[in-house]
Amino acid sequence: MALSVQRLTGVEWKSQGTPFLLGFGHCATHWLTASLFLLMPFVAGDLGLSYSEVGVLVGLLHFSSAAANVGSGLVVDVTGRRVIYLVIALILGGSAFVGFGASTVFGILGVLIVLIGVCVNLWHPAAISYLSVNYPGHRGYALSIHALGASAADALAPLAAGALLVWMSWRGVALTSGGLVLLAALPVALILLPKDRPTGTDTRRGLGLRDYWSGLKALVSNRSLLGLCAMAGFRTMTVNGLYLFLPLYLANELGLSPILIGATMTALQIGGFIGTPIAGTWSDRVGRRTVMIAGLTLTTVILITLAATANVIVFVAGVSILGFVLFSVRPVIQSWVMDLTPAGLGGSATSLLFGVQSALSTLAPVIGGIVADHWGLTPVFALLAATILVANLLVFLVPKEEKRSRAC
Q: Most exposed residue of 24, 104, 140, 212, measured as fewest CB within 10 angstroms of its CB?
């Protein structure tokens, strides 16, 4: 079996553990956001919030994620440390979600959502650069395992939250989920912290500040990289719009029960869970651009179909197929960014990528909430189809030939 895995992935059996452990931690961070989106219809009902107010709360999540990117990549690259920030992210996010479940004040809920957003994007620069450095020839595969953790959480958390809502309030679900994330920090800390050594130009302290600013200048002047980040940003607008408005549509327009809402959100993610390692490994062999064009084109077609159908069975089936093509390209984008990144700047490149994604994602819930308040939830899906179409067009601006960086 070990030889089969090594032949298929190109990665030795003994080296498989680290990507899966980081995938587990990534699963924990996404468990927070996936649970949050599933709970929002019930939070809104309990507190009497409008669609616009819900949009503002979720907008804060993405805004704080974007703000967290400003310094997280710099700290990771200059110190050369990565694992310590992974542990901090899990502790911060888990604690904030526990507080979210205990709060009754709108303003405090907003502050706690901000902390959850910081947790999510403190994790990414450290984890993605860590895997990129340690698996330079197999980034697509290693990052696909990392993304697999996100897909697992995005698939299982809504189903678990929907089931738990049968026996407890949304507050109880938030307290339970936050506690699980705090527990997830333990294996990451115990296994990887002893191995957390600085990496970069100066192995004693990571990348020097002079080298960092010089490399950062080259990073932000790379038009291909900026175009790729913009493409990823519009794709993420679509993803986060779906996370928020799909549960609202299922609850308020189709009248589905919490368990069925959770099952539908799980169906959205199952396809991504299956397709993620396939797309990541495939992109290592045939190129990132080919896989991205295929995935985004199919996503556009499926979203247009969803916006035009009123049949529940067709809608749920379309959601399942959508997940396969929409989420499987996540590691392909991240690998492509690492390919274009100068050595030692993997954390900052990741921050740039997720900063653009978070900044654009801040607009999706606010604009979508306004559209839903005035014209209903169905037109929101047409809006999301437009954002993924823009992403599809932007991918053609990135050069066909990819410059591979061996260390980030």
A: 104
